[in-house]
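Example record for the data management plan.
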Amino acid sequence: MTGIKRVLILYDIMCHYGVHLVKCVTDSELLPIIEELEILMGIGLFHVHEHKDTCLCCFLSSYIIGARLTDGEMVEWLWSMLNKISWSTHSMSLPYHQEVLNSHMNYSN
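Corresponding structural encoding:
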């Protein structure tokens, strides 16, 4: 993580999940993290409007400098693409099934 100074984490319920997130990450032996790293937390555009008004002003990704316009739903977009090809893997052996899905995921990244 050389050169990375800021990380943005978007989660549907960051207003609750993020309360102890930084402490959990810094206290973990399994998640080494640079002390100078700034962790920014937000809620994607799709979910934030169902929260309280205080969540909107504190966690809306549009208000986070550098976040640009993002809905925070990247994983869901990737899953939706996998759903379209998953039917073709039903008759495959497990190793080939995993290889096909991994290939599609790596192509999407």
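Summary line stored alongside the record: The mean pLDDT is 80.
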